[in-house]
């Protein structure tokens, strides 16, 4: 029941990726919120193939109440291989069936349907492409769409992805640049691959070449194995004016397989089994560490909109859901702690809290990336005197790859947003009691 004394907040969520859908779940559960969700596409998009859900992802799915709806294949062991010779350079960590938070590869559609199943029917307004925002002072924000319609709200949640229009208003000079990296992704029915001798289909394998890599993984529970994900990455791709903006566009089999003709024969045969028209291309864009996730005392960025980077360590969806859940908690907390909350004071306080809890994480992520820059340059280079030896060294006990597979990204994958939130509450209560 909405509280009679607390103000009703008008909130617009822009976008229905993992960030927008999880925002819709978390915010629609709050009393005193009038929620609208806008999406530029005509329907929910199913872009991409598989998605890794790590410890952090399971934790936030639990908080959103949809963990049981999301299933997939364990990514342990992830076997690291030489793409030319097939040599195993790292056998990966063993599968631990007793760990409920173990990393799994999940079909993106499964995650999307789980999220969509928990939002009120009819909530999403499709074919609503945000074009501009106008700060109306005490009256809120005017949200304008390409079809010339408008809405006025108290808070705009920018879940509109890498090329966020909300971010452009919040940080107009934020630099977004092409990262010279392209991903190609598809799903292949398992029966089309089963004839290939020794092609691993029930474990995840990552195959490395010169300035390219390929990821092969089941995305369904092994008891119900139906689809295998193929994801390729190529580095050092030139910018093609007017063309290098691809995000989920079709590419031909020839374009993809041509880049892997020098690879292990199992991979070459696997490429031949891909149904024409099913590859999708994703050109990677990146930006820097944004100063703040909030602005105007009325705008908040969730998900990729705030940290366009080359993937998010394969955890960008979890980040988006963590942001959304935290934003809802921040609004709830602001309403409960402000003595006489107005709309403006509630939104301003909720955004302050949201930024306080989430911004340090993204800052740490960008700092980490800076530290990895030189090591990553090595991975991306095309010329090698001894590629096989270099790859083995990369996965030797102190190599970048080995540390990556043995948990040195723990601040990302093992994070627990529920715990972080509780820690914030404890410290804030201590702050309030000192006042
Ligand atoms: C190749 C590749 C591999 C990846 N692998 C993983 C992985 O293994 N695990 C993982 O967790 N993440 C992975 N990611 C990252 C993950 O896909 C993103 O982090 C995640 O989708 C971010 O969600 P989001 O809701 O912030 O943005 P998006 O998913 O980009 O959604 C944005 C939404 O906003 C809509 N929109 C955009 N502009 C407007 C506008 N002007 N008006 C209205 N609506 C608008 C779009 O149509 C879209 O529906 C991968 C990404 C790529 C490209």
From TrEMBL:
This is FAD-binding monooxygenase. Transmembrane segments: none annotated. Gene3D superfamilies: FAD/NAD(P)-binding domain. GO terms for molecular function: FAD binding; monooxygenase activity. Residues 10-175 form the FAD-binding domain. PANTHER family: FAD-BINDING DOMAIN-CONTAINING PROTEIN-RELATED, HYDROXYLASE, PUTATIVE (AFU_ORTHOLOGUE AFUA_3G01460)-RELATED. Belongs to the paxM FAD-dependent monooxygenase family.
């Amino acid at each position: 029941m909405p509280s009679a004394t607390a103000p009703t907040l008008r909130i617009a969520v822009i976008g229905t990726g993992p960030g927008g859908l999880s925002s819709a779940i978390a915010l629609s559960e709050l009393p005193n919120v009038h929620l609208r969700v806008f999406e530029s596409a005509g329907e929910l998009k199913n872009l991409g193939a598989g998605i890794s859900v790590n410890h952090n992802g399971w934790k936030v799915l639990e908080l959103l109440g949809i963990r049981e709806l999301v299933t997939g294949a364990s990514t342990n062991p992830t076997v690291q291989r030489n793409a030319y010779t097939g040599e195993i350079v790292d056998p990966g960590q063993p599968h631990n069936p007793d760990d409920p938070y173990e990393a799994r590869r999940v079909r993106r559609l499964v995650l999307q349907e789980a999220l969509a199943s928990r939002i009120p029917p009819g909530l999403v307004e499709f074919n609503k492409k945000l074009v501009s925002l106008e700060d109306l002072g005490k009256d809120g924000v005017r949200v304008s769409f390409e079809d010339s319609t408008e809405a006025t709200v108290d808070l705009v949640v920018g879940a509109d992805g890498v090329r966020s229009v909300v971010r452009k208003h919040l940080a107009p000079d934020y630099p977004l640049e092409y990262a010279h990296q392209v991903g190609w992704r598809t799903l292949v029915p398992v029966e089309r691959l089963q004839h290939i001798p020794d092609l691993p289909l029930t474990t995840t394998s990552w195959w490395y070449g010169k300035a390219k890599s390929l990821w092969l993984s089941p995305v369904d529970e092994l008891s119900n194995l139906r689809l295998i994900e193929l994801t390729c990455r190529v580095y050092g791709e030139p910018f093609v004016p007017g063309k290098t903006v691809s995000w989920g566009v079709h590419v031909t089999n020839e374009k993809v397989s041509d880049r892997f003709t020098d690879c292990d024969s199992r991979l070459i045969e696997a490429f031949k089994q891909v149904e024409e028209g099913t590859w999708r291309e994703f050109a990677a864009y990146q930006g820097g560490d944004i100063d703040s996730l909030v602005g105007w005392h009325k705008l908040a960025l969730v998900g990729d909109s705030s940290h366009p980077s080359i993937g998010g360590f394969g955890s960008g969806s979890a980040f988006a859901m963590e942001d959304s859940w935290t934003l809802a908690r921040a609004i709830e907390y602001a309403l409960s702690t402000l003595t006489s909350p107005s709309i403006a004071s509630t939104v301003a306080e909720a955004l302050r809290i949201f930024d306080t809890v989430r911004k340090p994480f993204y800052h740490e992520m960008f700092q980490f990336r800076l530290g990895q820059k030189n090591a990553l340059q090595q991975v991306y280079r095309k010329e090698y005197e001894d590629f096989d030896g270099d790859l083995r060294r990369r996965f030797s006990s102190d190599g970048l790859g080995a540390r990556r597979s043995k948990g040195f990204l723990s601040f990302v994958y093992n994070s627990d947003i529920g715990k972080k939130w509780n820690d914030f509450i404890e410290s804030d209560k201590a702050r309030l009691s000192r006042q």
